[in-house]
Amino acid sequence: MNNSLRFNFFDYFLIFGVIGLSILAAILDHHMDWLDFIGVVTGIINLVLCAKGNIYNYVFGIIYNAIYAYIAFSTSLYADAAIYAAYYLPMQFIGWYNWKKNRDQEDGTVNVKHLSFRSALILLAAAAVLVPLLAWVLSLPVVGDAQPWTDSATTAASILGMYMMVKAIAEQWYIWLVLDVLLVVKWTIEVANETPHAAMWLIMFAFYAANSAYGLIQWNRLARKKASGQL
Questions:
Q1: Please, is 98 exposed, middle or buried when counting C-beta atoms within 10 Å of its C-beta (0-12, 13-18, 19+)?
Q2: What is the tally of structural domains in the chain?
Q3: How many CB atoms are closer than 10 A to CB 16?
Q4: Among the listed residues 225, 156, 173, the one whose alpha carbon sits nearest the alpha carbon of residue 47
Q5: Residue 42's domain spans which residues?
Q6: 210, HSE (Cβ side, Cα atoms, 13 Å)
Q7: 212 by DSSP, 3-state: which?
C-alpha cells in the first residue's frame, strides 16, 4: 500500500485550516474569488503531498503554479509571475518524470537523498549572486517591480528549491521554509496596501511555512530509512 497517501492529523489540519480561513477571509471581505480559492486549496494539497514524498503532488502543483503566475502578474510582482510561468510550471512535469523513475516500489514514496557539502556551497554562492542581481534588474524604472528585494530573494530561492525538489534532496525544505517566511512578509505588505487577492495568499503561505518545517522532518526520516535499507 502507498503509505504516502495516508494522511495524519497535521495533514488534515493544514488542508482544512487553509480552506476554513480562506472562506472566513472571503466572508469578512464580502467577496469570494474562486480563482484565489482554487489556487490556495490546490497549493496546500500540493505541498502536503510533497512533504509525504507522494508523486501526485505534481497534479495539484500544475494547477496551483498556473494560477499563482496569473495572480502575481496581476499584482505587479513580475519576478514571481515569470518564475512561476517559465520555471515552476514546466518543472512540475520534469519532477513528475524524475520522481516516477525514483520511487520505492513497495512504499510508494520518492527515494530521498541528502545534499553534499560541495553542492551546498555552490547553491549558496549562486544565491549570493542571484539575489542582488535580480533586485537591481527589478528596481529598474522600465520594470517597476513593487518589491524588488523581496521579489528577487523569493525568485532565487524558488529556482534553487525547485531544482532540489526535482532531485529529491531533503535540504530543499530549508529553502522552502525561508521562502515561505519571505512570502508571508511580502503578502503582509500587500494586505496593508489593500491589494486584491492578498489576504488569501497570506493565509496560504503562513500554512506553507508550517508545512515546510513538517516536510523537513518527514524527508529526513525518509532519507534515514533509505540509508538503512528499510524502504
A1: middle
A2: 1
A3: 11
A4: 173
A5: 3-228
A6: 15
A7: helix
Only one residue has cell 535540504, namely 171
| DSSP structure class, residue 122 | H
Residues 103-133 as b/e (b if ≥16 CB within 10 A, e otherwise) read bbeebbbbbbbbbeeeeeeebeeebeebbee
- CA–CA separation, 90 and 61 (whole Å): 10
CB 107 within 8 A of CB 2: yes
User: Which positions ≥6 away from 50 have C-beta within 8 Å?
Assistant: 57, 61, 165, 215
The number of C-alpha atoms within 13 Å of 87 and in the hemisphere containing its C-beta is 17
Cα 14 to Cα 5, 19, 126, 197, 210: the distances in Å are: 15, 9, 32, 20, 8
Per-residue model confidence (pLDDT) at position 68: 87
Cell numbers that stand for 134 in this block: 535580480
Alpha-carbon gap, residue 67 to 206, rounded angstroms: 18
Q: Give the residues of the chain that fall short of pLDDT 70.
A: 1-5, 79, 106-107, 197, 226-231
Question: Helix 198-228 crosses helix 9-29 at what angle (to 10 degrees)?
Answer: 170
For 152-193, what is each residue's pLDDT tens digit? 887 788 888 888 999 999 999 998 898 888 888 878 888 888
